[in-house]
Amino acid sequence: MSHRPVREGGWVGRPLPLKEDARLVAGRGRFVDDLGRPRMLHAAMLRSPHAHARIVSVDTRGAEALPGVFGILTGAEAVARSGPIRPLIPTTAVVPDYCLAVDRARYVGEPVAAVAAVDRATAEDALERIRVEYEPLPVVVDPEAALGADAPLLFPELGTNVVWHDTLTYGAVDEAMARADGVLRERFTIQRYASTPLETFGGIAEYDAGADTFEFWTNDQRPGLTISSLAASLGVPQSRVRLSCPDIGGGFGNKRRPAYLLVCALLARKTGRPVKWIEDRIENLTALMHACNGIMDVELAYRADGTLLALSIRDIADEGKNLVTPTQHNLIKLGNIANGYRIPAVRYEAWSVLTNKCPSGANRGIGKPFMCFAIERAMALLARRLELDPAELRLRNYVTAEQMPYTTPPGARYDSGDYPATLRRALERFGYAERRAEQAASRARDDGRWLGIGIATSVEPAGTNLASYEIVTGRRAASGSAEAAMVRVEPDGAVRVSLGDPPSGQGYETVLAQIVADELGLTPDAVTVTRGFDSATTPWLYLSGNYSNKFSVTDVGAVVGAAARVRDKLLRIAAHRLEAAVADLELSGGAVAVRGAPDRRIAFAELARTAYADVLGLPSGEQPGLEARQAYQNPLAEPMDGERRVRSQLVFSNAAHCCLVEVDRRTGLVKILEYLVVHDCGRELNPLIVEGMVHGATAHGIGAALLEEFRYDAQGQLLASTFMDYLKPTSVDVPLIEVDRLEHPSPVTPLGAKGVGEGGAIPGPAAVANAIEDALAHLGVVVRGLPITPEQIWRWTR
Amino acid sequence: MSVIPPSERLAVRLTVNGRPVEHAVEARRSLADFLREDLALTGTHVGCEHGVCGACTVMVDGRSARACLLFAAQLDGRDVITIEGLTPADGLSPLQECFRACHAMQCGFCTPGMIVTATELLAQDPAPSTEAIREAISGNLCMCTGYVNIVRAIAQAAARAGARA
Q1: ipTM over the 0.90 cut-off
Q2: pTM of the model
């Protein structure tokens, strides 16, 4: 489908201040912990102190005797009362995994038992009275060690810790390596980190014994998937599960754990009372979700002039105990593993491996920050080796605007954009030549400053095509990329919109109002977007949710489609009432009028009265009511082909980051002096929202580069489980991020928009790493891993 | 010193958002839980419960404080102001207006704490430098904005107040 031009003078494209900000700034958001139910109990969970241990016995008698305790759930009871958690990606690692650990705990923080009590403090008191006997087992923490034949096994019944190992080759890689002038070989690693939304995960479950129905309120960001998972585990049809999302205090992929909601549901059914559980920060950092740590061995074949010939990558993703979405970190970077470069031959050897660590999962950009770190570090090293300017090396290898749409060897389709122009704009805005001169002068003066300049560029994919899972599973369980929406003119003429994607800070109440206002000839003030999600009233699909940068790829299409159908119906009813032809009518100011005859007009309220109340006034054959539900499937999503190529993601934004850093010789501290982002996400529907997301994602990238790491010791104990030792970037760590933009509309989305939420987090770590290495190049430093802490710099430079 | 059992209830009298409040609280009840659970003032958010993230920041006797690190029982005789107390009955305060105009939030979870901290800063330093703003809010984590628009909003509020003065 080709994109429609945005209406001249319309609301889309304007930096409209956000509707939702008016309530959020006053503390009037409604988050899950602000909700309650009559007679509600509060749950707390007992968690394993061991990374790997056999659970010999669980004695809950002491806890049961505590006044105020109403129910206790153990792993054995979870098995008796619920089914296993259904995986999203049905790999060969099929082992029954329940909402609580049953006979084995496999990471520090894995829940072993749960208590529902009159309040949270009493529930936590009760946890102290539960006696669990553990028999510690050998622990595997390092993913390469986990591959070994004699490694301790998380699931002995699988006979291995490896979930997936495969080698995918696209093009003549060996031939290209053989005839290359050189091959750069490097190993890069990335640490475990997470976006740690400021609101932790949580939910309320209520069971209605009379109707055998469950109701949930949660900040889960993928409600479609979660409803199906909960219903399957509870053994009830999905028609008896209702799930609502209020405001969500940040998501970034992390906000999802059906197992916790299942614990609440089982306790609710057992006690006959609603049960609320809100994760505390230690639980969040220890046990919710980390991005995979990983190891990448990169081989990059090149000609002497810098032309890239082939890329071969061996990528080990450390999943921790992730049985729900293992292999995701591999699959989602496969299509764009060569970043924005034209590399004709690509080999990708994937390893997805289980270890005794927190489950991995979706985290802003899933896998792509590592892709970008490895490729952009390799480009920086290759530029040094060839004595080429790193910008020049990139410009010689980009997919160009003329080559769009460009299909990568593994099958991704880059739809639009001008990568060389993006970098050129960045170099110009950054004052690249002047900065280089400043750096050279500083070095010549030996003025004690170590200045470094970093460049990193990247593609930013949007929308996930679940058909890509077939590469791993060999069969298609789910596929495509789609979302559902509703637009309704209420009986009084007011307009309401709802969407199956519950926002977690992306300003949907404003941007959807802008879109629908344009479609229906209204102002955004006249359009109310329903807050959050309610499965009983919001249209939704299994694929519904707030993930994968998918808003522009699917959500916009659903809303535009629903609005168009409502508009068509308004026009048909108006044509009938005004005795005019539809073609002669136009919508504006909340009314339909005959073009050129403004006195022949009829207001939405009157059309709505006809549609809902005075239905004999409808045209013959027209259904009463004025609402349309529309699901939109992005047409780019296709099944895997015979060569195992697949568009795992669908629409591609791009960005260039440039930064200037100063490394303090004495302390090893890095100060980011300048940071510039030039990005291109196609048509910007609301530039205020877009720019804010670029800032925030870039800050996540800076945090991953300099501060954040979930380190484990050899026994699998997490060494950073509070914000005192898991360091997030603060306002003094993040510089003023300058943002500039190009706007190449996507030809494959309804309004020409592309993904934007993940962007900055993808090149950010690479840009900062490249700058630090540039600052320390005279010492022969090579950055191979993250984060780059003062201690690391001190080790390099002492 | 005698030890008070954590679940023993203690009587506190304090002022919250200008209103007198009397309550019997468990000795272990944090100020954050007291405000949210007992007084239904849910604008004060809880992000870490170990005093780092700043989401629960409120004003105690005119100074910012972490509601998660204080016990309600400690607040006897004190004056507490929360985001609800900083918000006019109609519309928004000038500082809040600047936060909205600059889109200085995304998910909005850190925002009440940011507003309290920024209110304290502007009371102490009506024309803060960018560095002073960054320093002042460095104890309030935001995972969404990279702080860029928050710094802008506070600077804008200071500039507007300066222009009015």
Answers
A1: yes
A2: 0.97
